[in-house]
Amino acid sequence: MCGRMNISDHEGVQSLLQILGITAAPGTEARFNVAPTQTLDVVMMDDEPVLTTMSWGVSMTIKGKKGQPITRRVTNSRDDKVWSSYLWRYLIPEQRVLIPVNGFYEWKRENKKLVAAYHITPANADAMFFAGIYRKPRNDDESFEVSIITTRANEAMSKVHDRMPVILGSHNAAMAWIQDNDRESLDELMQPAGEDALVFTQVGNYVNKSSNEGDECIRPID
User: Fold this and answer.
1) Most Cβ neighbours (<10 Å): which of 31, 93, 140, 196?
2) What is the number of other CB atoms lying within 10 angstroms of the CB of residue 49?
């Protein structure tokens, strides 16, 4: 699962984009606590990789408790449901993007009680690509919306949570994600990251509130 992200290192993200031949600059504002419904820089294929912005969370209308329709934003999509769910199966064949981030947050719970927050970053780089799936606007009042694809946790991640974002850890994997349309090839990309791919740093409670910003979000606890 992924519910909050750190996109604060402009140079780190820019270096990652340059690997794909993208010279356009991402947003320069340091964002230490990016939350659902906010905008994200994403990479999509349009003859060549291009940088654009999308809103985090794909809108889905469901029936509320009193039968009235309500709209909720789906921020994560499961790898084992993208081919079967009515929300994703029409999108996954062609509407895929890369989401560059410096890190993400996850919360460990014991007996349903939150006991620790972790800032999770790539072990050998300043930024990484998540696999994403997007929906185009259906009318003039809507925007492009994106969801992060998650997969089962690797052993390291399972100590914190049972799901993790799909991380595309090489140039070839990133390009294949936005270029290939073969289901078998895409399924091979939707796998847990290697055991040594991530660094887990326990941080304080400041990050728990989505409106809190600044480098205190990623400050390690003593």
Assistant:
1) 31
2) 20
Q: Going from the N-terminus, what domains does the chain have, and what CATH number goes with each?
A: 5-61+68-218 (3.90.1680.10)
Q: Is 61 exposed, middle or buried (0-12, 13-18, 19+ CB in 10 A)?
A: exposed
What's this model's pTM, rounded to 2 decimal places? 0.94
- Residues 114-148 have pLDDT tens digits of 889 999 999 999 999 999 999 999 888 889 999 99
72: its two tokens: 């909720």
Q: Give one word for 112, left, alpha or beta, with left for phi > 0 and alpha for psi -120 to 50.
A: left
| Tokens 């789906």, residue located | 74
Q: Exposed, middle or buried: residue 219 (CB in 10 Å: 0-12, 13-18, 19+)?
A: middle
Token duo for residue 88: 């994703």
SS3 state of residue 49: strand
Please give the radius of gyration of the chain, using alpha carbons only, rounded to the nearest integer.
17
Eight-state DSSP code of residue 192: P
Consecutive H or E run containing 96 = strand 96-101
**Which residue blocks in the chain are alpha helix, DSSP H?**
10-19, 155-158, 171-179, 183-189
Residue 129 β-bridge partners: 100, 168
